[in-house]
Structures are given as structure tokens and as C-alpha cells.
């Protein structure tokens, strides 16, 4: 059961949507310490309050293109301890790759129209605040299609399914349930992914995160 009160900064340029989200989050036990309608306002609010997680829309004033996710990348660089949950109608693969370039720990990217229940959104917030990952399957698919394909193409269809579910934050047990296979079978698929991506075990590294990031394109 989730009982920790999260401190959240919410960036959304639509006043109606922003106010509605504040009410929903507070009912669910979160503390919205600040809201922002612009990227500059978001940066200032995060610097002042140092929240557990910042919820960020991609398109914000003045141009309504990519100001929000640019700010998210800046926050990631300046204050990596702050979780980032991008919540948008759009998939920006270039900026999403940059957001994930330093590691997927503490990063989420959900599409507004695909979140069916408030509880799902709040669960994702907690996961990101705790250093986990919450990526919508459509975001994962777009990143995979836009990224380095050589490693991904070496995977079997089942290994790719397992990798996509890993990227969404699922444990081996959860993946086993979703794919209706044994947990041991999932472990073998995960090990195969690590091998094909040349990811060796170390005490410090999170190979699950590295496996998700290994094929994302953001070198240019």
C-alpha cells in the first residue's frame, strides 16, 4: 500500500487541466507544492521546492513546441535527484532520448489519452520518485524504431516483448504473468538480452535500465 506523501511540482499550461490534476493528486495523498504554466516557471518552482517528482507537459508557452521537455532535460542535468514524469499527448523521440540519456532511473513518460485510471498515474509517480521507470508502451515502441536497430534486431520476438515490458517498469514476475510463461523463462529471456547487448553484471550498474537505453539514438 502506498502511504508516503509525495511532494509534486506540476507543469501544465491549461489552467482547467492543471487545477483538476491538483485536486486529483491531493485526494490521492500527494502534496502539490507548486504549479507552473511555463517552462521558466517550472524551472523556478523545482529549484525552490526540490520536489520528489516534477510532472511536465511537453508543449508549453510561448511556442507550444518542446519547451516543457527541454526544461525537463535541464532539471535532469541540474537536479538529478528530482524524478521527472513527462505527461503529454505527444511523443518527442529526440528529446525523450536526451531525457533518458543519463539513465532511466527516476524517469517516466506517459501519454494522457492512455492513462485509464488516476491510480495508474499516481502509482507511476511513486515509482519514478523512488528511482524507478514508467514508460508508456507507445513511447518505448517509438524510441525503439527511432534508435539503434542493430542490437534490437538481434533479439527474438519474445526477447523484444520482454525488453519492452522491462522498459515499462515490470518485474520478472509481472512479465511472467502478462506473457503467461514461467518466471524462469522470463529470467532466461532477460539474460539473453543482457548477453546480446553485452551488459555484464557489476555491483553498481542496473543492467535492466541499461538494456532499455542501449539502443536509444542520441549521439548526434
From TrEMBL:
UniProt-recorded name of the protein: Response regulator transcription factor
Annotated positions of the 4-aspartylphosphate modification: 57
InterPro entries cross-referenced by the UniProt entry: CheY-like_superfamily, NreC/VraR/RcsB-like_REC, Sig_transdc_resp-reg_receiver, Tscrpt_reg_LuxR_C, WalR-like
Gene3D superfamilies linked: 3.40.50.2300
Keywords recorded for this protein, A-Z: DNA-binding, Phosphoprotein, Transcription, Transcription regulation
Signal peptide: none
Record-linked SMART domains: HTH_LUXR, REC
Amino acid at each position: 500500500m502506498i502511504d508516503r506523501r509525495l511532494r509534486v511540482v506540476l507543469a501544465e499550461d491549461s489552467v482547467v487541466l492543471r487545477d483538476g490534476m491538483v485536486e486529483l493528486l491531493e485526494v490521492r495523498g500527494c502534496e502539490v507544492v507548486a504549479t507552473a504554466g511555463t517552462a521558466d516557471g517550472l524551472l523556478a518552482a523545482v529549484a525552490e521546492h526540490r520536489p520528489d517528482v516534477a510532472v511536465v507537459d511537453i508543449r508549453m508557452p510561448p511556442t507550444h513546441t518542446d519547451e516543457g521537455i527541454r526544461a525537463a532535460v535541464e532539471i535532469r542535468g541540474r537536479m538529478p535527484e528530482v524524478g521527472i514524469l513527462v505527461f503529454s499527448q505527444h511523443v518527442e523521440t529526440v528529446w525523450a532520448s536526451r531525457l533518458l540519456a543519463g539513465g532511466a532511473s527516476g524517469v517516466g513518460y506517459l501519454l494522457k489519452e492512455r492513462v485509464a485510471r488516476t491510480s495508474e498515474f499516481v502509482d507511476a509517480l511513486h515509482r519514478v520518485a523512488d528511482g524507478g521507470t514508467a514508460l508508456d508502451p507507445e513511447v518505448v515502441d517509438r524510441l525503439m524504431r527511432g534508435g539503434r536497430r542493430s542490437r534490437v534486431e538481434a533479439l527474438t520476438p519474445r526477447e523484444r516483448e520482454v525488453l519492452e515490458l522491462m522498459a515499462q517498469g515490470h518485474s520478472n514476475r509481472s512479465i511472467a504473468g502478462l506473457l503467461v510463461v514461467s518466471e524462469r523463462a522470463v529470467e532466461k529471456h532477460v539474460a539473453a538480452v543482457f548477453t546480446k547487448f553485452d551488459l555484464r553484471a557489476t555491483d553498481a550498474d542496473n543492467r535492466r535500465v541499461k538494456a532499455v537505453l542501449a539502443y536509444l539514438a542520441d549521439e548526434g
